[in-house]
């Protein structure tokens, strides 16, 4: 089963994403971290995330911008600097519509930039389309074996 990593510190947004993911009917394992530093530890398989059976390497990352510690842009920059993660699909999922945030995200290599302002039905539909595309339709290049555990 494929894994999705949600990097989000807002409990309401986590709840909305869990609900949207469950309703898609697309099988996947949703892992959640709440800080930018935790996201990096998770992706690197460090500290409490070293067990890849319990914390599988993600096939897709949903990344908020405004996070405690390192923000989403800093996490994205770290991801794209790692040789084995350059092609990891990252979707910026944020409430920000600031042009500077959008430009910076795309400049750092985000695959998609989605605003969280939709109502529950529209948000659920967007999540379904994103999961369908990245988890079922797209054939991704392999990730280096040591990153998958």
Give a structural overview.
The chain has six helices and five strands; from the N terminus they run βαβαβαβαβαα. It is of the alpha/beta class and 149 residues long. A five-stranded parallel beta sheet has the order 2-1-3-4-5, sandwiched between helices. The two termini are 15 Å apart. The relative contact order is 0.20. The model has no long low-confidence stretch (mean pLDDT 91).
What's the order of the H and E elements? EHEHEHEHEHH
Query: Structural class of the secondary structure composition?
Result: alpha/beta
Anisotropy-based shape? globular
Approximately what portion of the residues adopt beta-strand conformation? 15-25%
Distance between the termini: 15 Å
What is the count of β-strands? 5
Helix content, binned percent = 40-55%
Q: Report the radius of gyration as a whole number of Å.
A: 14 Å
How would you write the strand order of the largest sheet?
Answer: 2-1-3-4-5
Q: What are the segments in which pLDDT stays under 50 over at least 5 consecutive residues?
A: none
Let me know the average pLDDT. Answer: 91
Number of helices: 6
User: Biggest sheet, in brief?
Assistant: 5 strands, parallel
Describe the secondary structure blueprint for this structure.
Layout: E1 3-7, H1 11-24, E2 29-33, H2 36-44, E3 60-63, H3 72-81, E4 90-94, H4 99-108, E5 112-115, H5 120-137, H6 145-148
Parallel strand pairs: 1-2, 1-3, 3-4, 4-5
Helix pairs in contact: 1-5, 2-3, 3-4
Task: Write a brief structural summary.
It is built from six helices and five strands, in the order βαβαβαβαβαα.
């Amino acid at each position: 089963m494929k894994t999705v990593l949600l990097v989000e510190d807002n409990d309401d947004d986590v709840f909305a994403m869990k609900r949207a993911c469950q309703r898609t009917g697309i099988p996947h394992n949703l892992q959640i971290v709440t800080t930018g530093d935790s996201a990096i530890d998770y992706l690197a398989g460090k500290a409490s995330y070293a067990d890849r059976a319990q914390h599988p390497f993600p096939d897709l990352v949903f990344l908020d911008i405004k996070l405690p510690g390192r923000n989403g842009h800093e996490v994205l920059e770290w991801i794209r600097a790692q040789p084995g993660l350059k092609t990891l699909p990252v979707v910026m999922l944020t409430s920000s519509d600031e042009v500077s945030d959008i430009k910076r995200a795309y400049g750092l290599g985000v695959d998609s930039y989605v605003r969280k302002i939709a109502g529950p039905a529209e948000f659920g539909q967007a999540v379904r389309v994103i999961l369908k595309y990245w988890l079922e339709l797209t054939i991704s290049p392999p990730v280096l074996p040591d990153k998958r555990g």
